[in-house]
Amino acid sequence: MLVFKSLIQADKLYLRDATAVFGHVFVGFLCLYLYCRILNRIKKVGMTAHLSPHGLLLKLSKVYAVRSGEERAITEVPKQVRKIAERLELNIFPNV
User: Fold this and answer.
1) CB 56 within 8 A of CB 38
2) Could you give the 3-state DSSP secondary structure of residue 26?
3) How far is CA 40 from CA 33, 46, 47, 52, 80, in A?
4) H or E segment to which residue 62 belongs
5) 90 and which of 8, 58, 65, 85 could share a cystine (Cβ 3.0–4.6 Å)?
6) How confident is the model at residue 10, as a pLDDT?
């Protein structure tokens, strides 16, 4: 439970309904699951000394997808972010 509380900051519950508590714990479980999947991908390529799941998500947050009507465009992907995504085999950016 300590990992759950510290990694995703789920230590305070101000919920009064059993369904709300269940929903909170379930969403927390999903967050922890995704965190572990990201961490395993980072470990697989040997980048744990340079990158954490939080750091990866922070770097990826610099890229935006913009939709205007039917058109969708992705903002410029920084070179460092593209290299990290390629090394982790994420395949989330179009090849331009």
Assistant:
1) yes
2) helix
3) 11, 10, 10, 10, 20
4) none
5) 85
6) 59
